Amino acid sequence: MNEMSPLPLTREAFEASMADYRAAGVARADAIGNRGPLVLDANGKLHPDILAAYWKHGYYIFEDVIDAGEIDALRHDAQVMIERAPVHRDAKVDAAGRPAMGLDHQRSPYVFAKPLGDPWGGTGQLGGRHPSKMSEPQAAADAPQDVVFLMRGMCQEMPAALRLYGHPEILAVAEAINGDDFVPFNDAIFVKQPGLGGSVAWHQDGVTHWDAPNWDEGIHGFNFQVQLYPATVGNCLWVMPGSHKLGRADIKGMVAANDGSDQLPGAVPLVCGAGDVTIVNRQMLHGSFANSSPDLRISITFGFHRRTSVLGAKAALSVESSDVYDAQRIHDRAAVIAVAIDARQQVFPMETPYNYKPFAGQEDAFRFNEATFDSVIRDYNTKDLAI
After folding, report:
1. What is the C-alpha separation between 147 and 129, in angstroms, rounded?
2. Cys bridge to 118: 11, 174, 199, 384, which one at CB 3.0-4.6 A?
3. What does the pLDDT read at residue 252?
4. Is the dihedral of CA 100, 101, 102, 104 positive or negative?
5. How far, in Å, are 18, 192, 198 from residue 136 at the CA level?
6. pLDDT of residue 5
7. pLDDT confidence of residue 76
8. Residue 297 β-bridge partners
9. DSSP H or E stretch at residue 303
10. What is residue 345's predicted lDDT score, i.e. its pLDDT?
């Protein structure tokens, strides 16, 4: 006798199944706290209490960092990218029939997913770091074939995002965590469209240094996420506090021990307002569920490393290369920070620009102009420093 196929998971059933889990997660997050303004001391250094809270829990939420005017500019540029995306993953034109953005780039700016799908869970992609698939609710009958899941190359495609990359307070946080010779990782914009946005299966970002003799809780760096819209309990990132200290997690085993459910106990949702900026340790166990909610989330994500973690390391993750990161490769990718600082200064001249130590004294060679756009910014993400 043939077994019957399981019924599809409807959006309504998925939402109902998440209600208690979300409520418990919000209560847990409220009890921890770990959020507040981005506070620098008189010397421009991150307040030590914030730094201690980050290292204890592996994350922090900075509230109201990016003002409304800058958020509007970022929203505009992100929307242009979304509108200019290929109408589906194999198309060369956008929804209006125009040539899609990025056809002439070395790396496509777009990653697609099936509506409410999980494109990475249970696959060998990205070093196999997403070993267990997330729940995939059934999308509406009129949902598109593919939806934009991730957008890359923000410093090339979005003028406001290049300026964001040079934000002095954000870079001061990077210095506090990774030292004044910190180096970039990569950037990606997560797009969670209402009722369509895909999930990101539970994972830890780092893949290179788990067995290193000098392993510690910061060796794989961290990521910022700048929220362009409120991140709600129905569409936000979830993290497992303290997991950055525990080494490589057995994610499949954790799901199996949880009766096969992806609602892992102990996690907290990073609920944010527009303009909030989160920092999450890349060794944290984290993930996000399909966005069956009516709320849009667009999160601009970019990370930083210790220089010592990258120098001499072999390329990993989405860097499709067997290269070893030498000093020249690091310099070439880090030059984006130097150019971004000047791009920001040209628009926000009243700000005190961040002093990026690796390029001190070289500022005139890395002003933002057509020449440096071509030499430093164009296709910069082919030089990402993934570990």
Report:
1. 23
2. 199
3. 94
4. positive
5. 13, 14, 8
6. 43
7. 98
8. 192
9. strand 297-305
10. 98
**Torsion sign, CA atoms 287, 291, 292, 293:** positive
Structure tokens at 335: 């030059």
Cα–Cα nearest to 228, from 22, 381, 69, 35: 69
Q: Which residues of the chain are modeled with pLDDT < 50? A: 1-5
Residues 233, 256: Cα–Cα separation, whole Å: 24
What does the block give as tokens for 243? 């997991």
Q: How far apart are CA 192 and CA 147, in angstroms?
A: 9
The whole-number pLDDT of residue 6 equals 57
Helical segments of the chain, H only: 11-32, 48-57, 68-83, 125-128, 154-157, 159-165, 168-178, 251-257, 307-310, 327-347, 370-372
Q: How is 192-254 classified by DSSP, letter by letter?
A: E-TTTBPPEEEE-S--SSTT-TT--TTTT-EEEEEESS-B-TTTSEEE-TTGGGS-S--HHHH
Question: What is the largest distance, in Å, between two alpha-carbon atoms of the chain?
Answer: 77
The pLDDT assigned to 295 comes to: 97
Q: Find all residues with CB under 8 Å of 237, minimum gap 6, and list them.
A: 200, 225, 231, 269, 270, 278, 280, 286, 287, 288, 299
In the Cβ-directed half-sphere of 131, how many Cα atoms lie within 13 Å? 13
Q: Which two structure tokens, joined as six digits, stand for 16? A: 């109902």
Q: Which domains does the chain have, with CATH numbers?
A: 11-307 (2.60.120.620)
Distance CA(364)–CA(347), nearest Å, equals 17
Find out whether 317 and 207 touch, Cβ atoms under 8 Å: yes
Task: Find all residues with CB under 8 Å of 184, minimum gap 6, and list them.
Answer: 302, 303, 304, 305, 333, 334, 336, 337, 384, 385
- Helix/strand/coil for 341: helix
- The predicted-structure confidence for 326-341, as pLDDT tens digits, reads as follows 999 999 999 999 999 9
The pLDDT value given to residue 42: 87
> Alpha-carbon distance 279 to 288, whole Å?
15
Q: What pLDDT is attached to residue 4?
A: 42
